Amino acid sequence: MSSEKKQAELIKEISGVNPLKCMKCGKCSASCPSYNEMDIKPHQFVSYVVNEDIESLVNSKSLWKCLSCFACVERCPRDVKPGKLIDAARQVVVRQKDQDYLSPNEIPELLDPELPQQLLVSAFRRYRR
Amino acid sequence: MKYSYYPGCTLRTKAKDLDAYARASAKALGFELEEIEDWQCCGGVYPLGTDEIATKLSSVRALNEAKVKGQSLVTLCSACHHVIKRVNDDMKNVEDIRTRANNYMELEEPYAGETEVLHFLEVLRDKVGFDELKKKVTNPLTGKKIGAYYGCLLLRPSSLLAFDDPENPKIIEDFIRAIGAEPVVYPYRNECCGGYISLKEKDMSKTMCEKIMDSAEGFGAEMLITACPLCLYNLNKSSGKLPVVYFTELLAEALGVKEEVQKS
């Protein structure tokens, strides 16, 4: 099995999603509050997994723009849940050595007096292993 | 009535108001919030991967503690509620996660999702009742035009959260009516504030929160209320056009217990 095929299988396994159910209606992308910031849009993300183009996905800035707002998950008429696929791709990246998107060293300069603890724990959980 | 209560990390630090007003209001309404001993942070976001186990254990511990006491578990922070409710669903319905989490936990009796998880607003709606709440209001906030800001985590995915209609919720509007004020329904009330994006990309959440503020202001809201410390933070970091407060502050005010909280 090629490495990209393996990674596509891994993304499907971690997410528990079957991307073949997608009927390309685009409702996920239409709902996504980060749409303008994403290079690969949520509906395209599903096709990339189907086509096993994982290299593009793991290098996509979309991984770090998804807000886990679950609008796509809520509104998907086929229960494909693109947000879960994006999270799984993010996991495939951050579970590798030295691939964290957030380092504790960055924190001091990101802090301000009102910043809630919830923001730090949430970001750490999404951005690193 | 006594409930187990899970405050969460931020309610001990930056969101002490959210917690203190809730406790005082609960007392005034005749129910008790019994804090779970040695609770641990829920992690802030639900771990979506089907193979994530260790990251769910803090929720399982809290859930099991409530089960042992035979109480429902009440949450207040939207994020804690989201995480704990979804982990509870995993423990109830996902055999693989239930088995592996219980293998870690080695409890006297395995935990299988028995605990009922309630958000404080659900307690008000489903246990106290908004009609009953209305009767206990001594200081109605008459004439105040208030926009409910729901955000994401209380509503979606609705199949699991089962909190309210995810596209047209009304629980917070009903709450606003119960405390004597006037709810302002505006289209952006269930749009995302940006959540954790505001750590590294402050402009992104700022743009999103401006839209929410503009939408609420355009429909005539004078202030916004929320249950989530991160939503409150993000909204306050935008234009600041409208004041944003925790719903429990207004509840305490309406019940006439706000001042005693402020003094303590």
Automatic annotation (TrEMBL), chain A:
Annotated ranges, domain 4Fe-4S ferredoxin-type: 12-43
UniProt KW keywords: Iron, Iron-sulfur, Metal-binding
Annotated Gene Ontology cellular component terms: plasma membrane
Keyword Cell division attached: no
Gene Ontology MF terms: iron-sulfur cluster binding; metal ion binding
Name the record gives this protein: 4Fe-4S dicluster domain-containing protein
Entries under Pfam families matching the protein: Fer4_8
PANTHER family from the UniProt entry: HETERODISULFIDE REDUCTASE RELATED PROTEIN (PTHR43255:SF2), IRON-SULFUR-BINDING OXIDOREDUCTASE FADF-RELATED-RELATED (PTHR43255)
InterPro entries linked to this entry: 4Fe4S_Fe-S-bd, 4Fe4S_Fe_S_CS, HdrC_iron-sulfur_subunit, Helical_ferredxn
Species per Swiss-Prot/TrEMBL record: Schaedlerella arabinosiphila
UniProtKB/TrEMBL annotation, chain B:
Superkingdom of the source species: Bacteria
One Pfam family, short name: CCG
Alphabetic keyword roster: Oxidoreductase
PANTHER family: COB--COM HETERODISULFIDE REDUCTASE SUBUNIT B 1
Signal peptide: none
Annotated protein name in UniProt: Disulfide reductase
Organism: Schaedlerella arabinosiphila
Keyword Oxidoreductase attached: yes
Xref: Gene3D superfamilies: 1.20.1050.140
MF-aspect GO terms: oxidoreductase activity
Boundaries of every Cysteine-rich domain copy: 4-85, 148-235
Keyword Oxidoreductase belongs to the record: yes
